[in-house]
Structures are given as C-alpha cells and as structure tokens.
Write a structure and sequence with these properties.
The protein has a five-stranded parallel sheet with strand order 2-3-4-1-5, with helices on both faces. It contains eleven helices and five strands; from the N terminus they run αβαβαβααβαααβααα. It has two domains: 3-225, Rossmann fold (3-Layer(aba) Sandwich), CATH 3.40.50.300; 231-311. The radius of gyration is 23 Å and the shape is globular. α10 crosses α11 (272-295). 44% of the residues lie in helices and 8% in strands. By secondary structure, the chain is of the alpha/beta class.
C-alpha cells in the first residue's frame, strides 16, 4: 500500500512519515496480537524512534495508538517525576503508569511513549534515579510498594495486573531528536563545490555517544528513523495538505509555501513549517477582513471554519 492508497479512515500520515509508521504498525501488531507464552525466548517490545525536531515522531505514535484503538500513555522525560518526590502536587510517574496499565487490562493492548530521551545525560543523582526507573519500565517490570497521589499504598493486585499488562500486551516506544546529529554537516563532496553530504542515519553506537549506552541497549537495535525533509519532501507534504484545506485558504497557503520552502529546507524547520504557514494565512485573512469592518465600526466574526487540526 502506498500513501495515496490509504483510506479516509486511516490516520493522516505525511509522505516522509509513511515508512516509519508502517514499520511501527507492524511491530505493534506483532507484539500485541501474537502469543509468545510457550516460546523458549521472549521478544523485546521496545523500539526507538528518532528524527530531527519537527519530523513528526509524536504524531505517528499517537496516530498508531488511535488507528489500532490501543490505550495510550505519553510522558516526556522533562515531565517525569521520581517515585517519592512531588512537583506541585503532581503524582509520581510510576504510580500513574501503574494505574494506567491496570485500567487498561481489558483493552486490546497499550502503547507507552517515552519522549525526549535525548535530554538524559550521564552524571548527577537525579539522572541516576531517573535511569533506574526507566530501566524498570524497559525491563517490563512494575516497582513494588508504590503509592498513589494521596499517599496510600497501591494494592498488590493492582501492581500485579499492571505488570502482566506491561509484559504481555504493551509496546514501549522511546523517542529523541538528537538534534546534534542532524545539524552536523559532512565535508563538501568534490573539489570546489558547496554541496554537502547529508548526515548519516544514526545508529545505536551514535546515540550512545549522547546518552548512556545501557539505556539505548534496552531498545531494539533496528532504529526507526524519520529523515530530515528535503525540498522535495516539503513539496510532497504540500501536495498532500492542499486538498484538505478550505477553498478560501488554499491558494494563499500554496503561494506562501512555494515562496518559503527553500528557506524552510535550509533551516530544517520540519513539519512545523506548515503549522506556522497556516497561522500566517489565517492571520493575513483576519487582518484583511478586520480592516474595513473596524473602519465601519463592525466587529469581525470569530467563527470562521478551521480545518481539521489532525491534518498536521
């Protein structure tokens, strides 16, 4: 199946995301719908998605959960709260994961998405405790003696149910941009030319230069990579988006996109380029409509029809 053959009921996946989404979808189905109980080895249902900022890592994982009707839990490392600590009354992350898994016990399966893993660095007491809690998740275990948001012990049966769900019906997906890798440039190709080689796709060894190797080693060695967008990629996305825009915005959106795509590619703006572009189009329209109305003393309407936010 090609992106053009996806039905209207499928999630909106941009052309440059399609191969990564297809691979993730196959992994999720293999992990959640297969029975490995009688096999002498266990699978490792933890995969890592990487790509430059704005390439759509979060989007494809959320789209996967929605398309498969799977329970979905998302946490960024910057938001992770250690067991026994508090942050303005927020619940520690592990009790929240445990209760999520327990509530989802009757569902088809779960996806736990841990984002911004590239923000972890070696050293420091907080980092050591954080890594310990992440290793527990990636070893598909639930800590014992957890307490809920009120400080009461979580029942042992709840913890056991959560652990069964985590071990048997959950796919853990980690993600990180590792922007340093994507912004690095190689020497020019050939004598007297300004054309540079694109950065090589990252590997386990490359990622381990930035975060603890023990963390990366807990994921499948086959990374899922979203490549930086080229100008051709921006044009492909534009062609995908235009038919889904309201008629009164389509022409302006296309005109601005064609003018700005070369700069967007040079600056590696990613899919956020199109989000910013849509805002510019809407603001421009509002200003054009408001000017004569304000002159006449009439307030402009706030009820223009917006496109489905899911298209981006």
């Amino acid at each position: 199946m090609t992106p053009d053959e996806i039905s209207d009921t499928e999630p909106f996946i941009l052309p440059h995301q399609y191969e990564a989404y297809k691979r993730l979808s196959a992994i999720a189905r293999a992990c959640i719908y297969s029975n490995f109980a009688n096999l002498p080895i266990r699978i490792r249902p933890a995969v890592f998605v990487t790509g430059p900022s704005g390439s759509g890592k979060t989007h494809i994982v959320r789209a996967l959960a929605e398309s498969m009707n799977l329970a979905y839990f998302s946490i960024s490392i910057s938001e992770w709260i250690l067991i026994g600590s508090s942050n303005r009354g927020a619940v520690s992350t592990w009790p929240a994961i445990c209760q999520f898994l327990s509530r989802s016990a009757r569902s088809e399966g779960c996806i736990i998405f841990a984002d911004e893993l590239d923000k972890i660095r070696n050293g420091g007491e907080y980092s050591r405790f954080l890594l310990t809690e992440l290793y527990t998740l990636l070893d598909f275990r639930v800590p014992e003696n957890l307490r809920d948001g009120d400080g009461d012990p979580i029942r042992e049966t709840t913890i056991r149910d959560a652990e069964v769900m985590l071990r048997e019906k959950t796919l853990v997906i980690g993600a990180g941009a590792f922007q340093e890798i994507w912004t690095a440039t190689a020497p020019p190709i050939g004598f007297g030319t300004s054309v540079v080689q694109p950065p090589e796709p990252p590997s386990h060894n490359k990622l381990a230069q930035y975060v603890p190797r023990e963390l990366i080693a807990r994921f499948s060695s086959r990374l899922i990579v979203l490549q930086p967008l080229t100008e051709t990629g921006y044009h492909d996305i534009l062609a995908t988006i235009l038919p889904r825009l309201p008629d009164h915005w389509r022409s302006k959106f296309e005109q601005l996109a064609l003018c700005r795509i070369p700069d967007a590619a040079r600056q590696q703006q990613g899919t956020r380029f199109f989000e910013e572009l849509l805002l510019d189009v809407v603001v421009s329209e509002r200003m054009e409509v408001s000017a004569p109305l304000v002159t006449a003393g009439v307030e402009p309407s706030d009820h223009e029809t917006l496109p489905d936010p899911g298209i981006f």
